């Protein structure tokens, strides 16, 4: 928003600044909510600046739709030490209540892997996945693929395939790994040193030589190696092996 960068000083600049605000204030409320939500999704600081412009902006910025889309980039990944003030606590609570995908993802990670609130954590990861959060989708599909039921394993595999290519998967893995390192893990036995059933049972694909060995063989490969020669199921086995390795040690 250009007018947010206008410096106060000369009367002409103040006049233009006021005209711009007046023009935007005349927009329908629904459109103004969309504009402010767009600003919020890119920068929390810009959202705060908009709130300071006038009472109308302050009021519209409190819409659930804005909290649903607001960026949480300025907040630490793990909630330890977040709730030190009423404003921070209120903001994060509103983000969660409004279905902010990043907030759902962070809460889900802490609940599932640290607080042992497995059902609630998995539900929040699922909600964030539905909202299109890639890291949440990555974790959620890994959890599903590590299960014993064929239906949930198939659902997890399909979700993994829906991520946009190996570059996206690798990016998600890197970010999730960073998050897990910052957690106090109480649920790592779910993955660490756990023997999973291989998704690929074919003997004809390029990954066939690894079918009858332990899952640890998958993670002996240097992360980022070309896996184009593997079938989709072998690639999923490979990815689950890398994910489980995050919880070792």
Automatic annotation (TrEMBL):
Transmembrane segments: none
Signal peptide: none
UniProt xrefs under Gene3D superfamilies: 1.20.1280.50
Provenance organism: Clitoria ternatea
PROSITE patterns registered for this protein in UniProt: FBOX
InterPro entries named among the record's database cross-references: At1g67623-like (IPR040338), At2g35280_TPR_dom (IPR057136), F-box-like_dom_sf (IPR036047), F-box_dom (IPR001810)
Domain of life: Eukaryota
Domain F-box: 21-70
Pfam families reported for this sequence: F-box-like, TPR_27
The name this protein goes by in its record: F-box domain-containing protein
């Amino acid at each position: 928003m250009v007018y947010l960068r206008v410096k106060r000083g000369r009367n002409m600049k103040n006049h233009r600044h006021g005209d711009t605000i007046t023009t935007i204030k005349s927009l329908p409320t629904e459109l103004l909510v969309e504009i402010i939500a767009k600003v919020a999704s890119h920068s929390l600081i810009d959202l705060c600046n908009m709130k300071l412009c006038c009472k109308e902006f302050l009021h519209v910025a409190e819409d659930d739709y804005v909290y649903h889309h607001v960026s949480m980039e300025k907040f630490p990944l793990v909630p330890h030490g977040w709730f030190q003030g009423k404003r921070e606590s209120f903001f994060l609570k509103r983000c969660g209540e409004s279905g902010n995908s990043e907030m759902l993802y962070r809460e889900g990670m802490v609940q599932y892997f640290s607080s042992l609130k497995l059902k609630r954590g998995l539900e929040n990861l699922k909600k964030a996945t539905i909202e299109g959060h890639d890291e949440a989708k990555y974790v959620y599909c890994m959890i599903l693929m590590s299960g014993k039921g064929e239906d949930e394993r198939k659902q997890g595999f399909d979700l993994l395939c829906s991520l946009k290519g190996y570059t996206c998967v690798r990016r998600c893995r890197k970010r999730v790994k960073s998050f897990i390192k910052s957690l106090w893990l109480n649920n790592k036995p779910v993955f660490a040193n756990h023997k999973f059933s291989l998704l690929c049972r074919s003997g004809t694909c390029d990954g066939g030589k690894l079918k009858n060995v332990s899952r640890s063989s998958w993670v002996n490969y240097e992360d980022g190696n070309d896996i184009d020669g593997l079938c989709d199921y072998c690639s999923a086995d490979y990815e689950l092996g890398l994910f489980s390795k995050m919880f070792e040690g």
